[in-house]
């Protein structure tokens, strides 16, 4: 692997749980001594070698990433602990200053850059953002250069695409990401099903990008592709919510083109949301619905009234 982290110790956990011996896994791939050092997080190995080790344990790289995500982040880092403390205190300035302090370091792990991107994005911070823009640029370039999205890349790309314009990403790149999402949403076992939901979230952000930036024919086609996938994946976590989210994107897509079916779809969604609000009496859900209703009204230029 290209950076020191917990991959070795987590691989050891998988190997031992599956009953594989060190010498059997290492045979023909690397020396037993190197594998022992790797499993102790004392040394790194290449992705190609690591994939061969995973194959010997009967697990794909994608499934491993899902396993890694579940176990690698159980222990909070000092930075995350500080963030949690500042968030609880409500001190936005301390959060921003802590992020700037991290970004000024000579060496910053990619996952730390992603953490900072997520924090600053959630704050909607727009003052003295030179460091944060540079962090965003570095993350974007690294993601665009990779041939295989992992957890960090998916999360980082999700944040970037959520607020992106035509100038930030080409339509060809977004469509390639959508295709990768559609290919990886179907899951084979309990490990990959969690990764499939991350791809679902990235898919929704990418579809919204197409609709928001005027790529209407492609957006409609890809929305229908997504609905087909969700219809097939009956065991997908939060499947109904993802399905409804795509319908919501479609309704806005049609409304932006002044099509009546957009308002008709929006009214169906509003009825579902009203029923859910009545059953749950959730004030936060109600506030989100109010925001969504206002956003739909702003783009509704048809002669169909929206029923709130």
Query: Mean of residue pLDDT?
Result: 86
N- to C-terminal distance: 53 Å
User: Helix segment count?
Assistant: 16
Strand content: under 5%
**How much helix is in the residues?**
over 70%
- Low-pLDDT runs of 5+ residues are none
Q: So what's the overall shape?
A: globular
Oligomeric state of shown chains: single chain
> What's the story with the biggest beta sheet?
none
Topology as H/E string? HHHHHHHHHHHHHHHH
Give the total of beta strands. 0
Structural class: mainly alpha
Description:
- The protein has helices spanning 7-17, 22-26, 32-39, 47-56, 61-72, 78-89, 92-103, 110-123, 130-145, 151-162, 171-184, 192-212, 216-232, 239-256, 260-280, 283-299.
- Among the domains are: 7-59, lambda repressor-like DNA-binding domains (434 Repressor (Amino-terminal Domain)); 75-163.
- 71% of the residues lie in helices and 0% in strands.
- The mean pLDDT is 86.
- The longest helix is centred in the middle third of the chain and has 21 residues, at 192-212.
- The relative contact order is 0.06.
- It is mostly helical and 308 residues long.
Structure in a nutshell:
The chain has helices spanning 7-17, 22-26, 32-39, 47-56, 61-72, 78-89, 92-103, 110-123, 130-145, 151-162, 171-184, 192-212, 216-232, 239-256, 260-280, 283-299. Among the domains are: 7-59, Orthogonal Bundle (434 Repressor (Amino-terminal Domain)), CATH 1.10.260.40; 75-163. Helices cover 71% and strands 0% of the residues.
Mind sketching the topology for me?
Elements lengths: L6 H11 L4 H5 L5 H8 L7 H10 L4 H12 L5 H12 L2 H12 L6 H14 L6 H16 L5 H12 L8 H14 L7 H21 L3 H17 L6 H18 L3 H21 L2 H17 L9
């Amino acid at each position: 692997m290209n950076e020191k982290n917990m991959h070795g110790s987590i691989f050891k956990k998988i190997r031992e749980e599956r009953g594989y011996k060190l010498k059997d896994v290492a045979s023909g791939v690397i020396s037993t001594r190197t594998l022992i050092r790797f499993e102790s997080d004392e040394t790194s190995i290449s992705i190609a070698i690591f994939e061969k080790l995973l194959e010997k344990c009967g697990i794909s790289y994608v499934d491993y990433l899902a396993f890694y995500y579940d176990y690698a982040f159980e222990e909070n880092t000092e930075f995350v602990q500080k963030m949690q403390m500042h968030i609880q205190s409500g001190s936005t300035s301390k959060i921003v200053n802590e992020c700037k302090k991290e970004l000024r370091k000579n060496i910053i792990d990619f996952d730390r850059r992603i953490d900072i991107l997520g924090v600053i994005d959630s704050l909607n911070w727009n003052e003295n953002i030179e460091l944060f823009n540079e962090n965003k640029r570095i993350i974007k370039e690294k993601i665009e250069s990779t041939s295989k999205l992992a957890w960090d890349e998916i999360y980082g790309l999700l944040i970037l695409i959520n607020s992106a314009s035509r100038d930030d990403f080409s339509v060809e790149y977004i469509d390639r990401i959508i295709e990768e999402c559609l290919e990886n949403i179907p899951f084979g076992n309990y490990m990959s099903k969690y990764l499939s939901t991350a791809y679902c979230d990235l898919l929704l952000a990418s579809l919204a990008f197409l609709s928001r930036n005027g790529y209407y024919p492609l957006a409609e086609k890809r929305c229908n592709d997504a609905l087909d996938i969700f219809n097939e994946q009956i065991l997908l976590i939060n499947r109904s919510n993802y399905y409804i989210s795509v319908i919501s994107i479609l309704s806005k897509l049609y409304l932006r083109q002044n099509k009546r079916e957009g308002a008709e779809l929006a009214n169906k969604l509003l009825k579902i949301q009203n029923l859910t609000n009545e059953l749950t009496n959730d004030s936060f859900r109600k506030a989100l619905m109010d925001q969504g209703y206002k956003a739909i009204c702003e783009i509704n230029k048809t002669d169909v009234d929206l029923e709130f």
